[in-house]
Fold this sequence. Notes:
Blueprint: H1 5-16, E1 33-34, E2 37-38, H2 40-43, E3 47-49, H3 56-67, E4 75-77, H4 81-93, E5 100-104, H5 108-111, E6 114-116, E7 128-135, H6 138-141, H7 143-151, H8 156-165, H9 171-181, H10 183-189, E8 199-205, H11 209-223, E9 227-233, H12 236-245, E10 250-251, E11 255-256, H13 261-266, E12 271-288
Residues 51, 55-57, 103, 206, 208, 210-211, 236, 255, 259, 283 line the site of 1,1-dimethyl-prolinium.
Amino acid sequence: xxxxxxxxxxxxxxxxxxxxxxxxxxxxxxxxxxxxxxxxxxxxxxxxxxxxxxxxxxxxxxxxxxxxxxxxxxxxxxxxxxxxxxxxxxxxxxxxxxxxxxxxxxxxxxxxxxxxxxxxxxxxxxxxxxxxxxxxxxxxxxxxxxxxxxxxxxxxxxxxxxxxxxxxxxxxxxxxxxxxxxxxxxxxxxxxxxxxxxxxxxxxxxxxxxxxxxxxxxxxxxxxxxxxxxxxxxxxxxxxxxxxxxxxxxxxxxxxxxxxxxxxxxxxxxxxxxxxxxxxxxxxxxxxxxxxxxxxxxxxxxx
Length: 303
Ligand code: PBE
């Protein structure tokens, strides 16, 4: 059952979309200074290096450009998570300035010396949690699956350990290793749940490693109780649309209360929210720690 297959292809396309940004303004130089201080805006060519256009964090960054007067004239360069991480790695290698759309759980804070900068207007929210949503009627139709989904809860470190291990091997393999090492936790999600005989269930997820990790771990838990699990990666908005329409049975991917708020509210009442499956997430803008900028408000407007 792959009702979402077409939509998955659309999401794939949008992930490949590279929006062009920046302009051909003169090369910034290390001497670019105002009031004796380095003009960070000029150094980064008044550009924030973002990720996929469909991401909640990309929406938030567009909003930040509108809400912060000092970001007047700045460009939000959307591309992909992989492209952003490559640019970040290159900037760090060369001790250059860069401002990225960042989030955790992710290994980027472990792998690179970067720091979030303050967001006094709260455009990126504060602490986020990741929540589980299910289509209406799932509880009645598939009580065993519903119970496992409802019980699924883990910690930032759990998710991050899979993401980190997935640097060296397939994420599926990394998830299986995590399950093997945390069998008790996994068993606790399905304690007292009866096995089924090959029921099909489809989970919609977003295409980031964080959600690929949670979906894969729950897939393994569901399979151990006899389910046939299909995982369908789509853009965040499509996650809500699909679960609301009953095209997907559930999703472990929505970030709240800020990241996917618009979609959450758009479809509210058309799906069931089973509550947080992870707490302590965050989104925001980040810079290398050697950069002398602490807040979005420190950034200079484009002249
Ligand atoms: N993320 C990771 C996604 C959700 C998971 C923060 C990049 C987003 O912004 O939609």
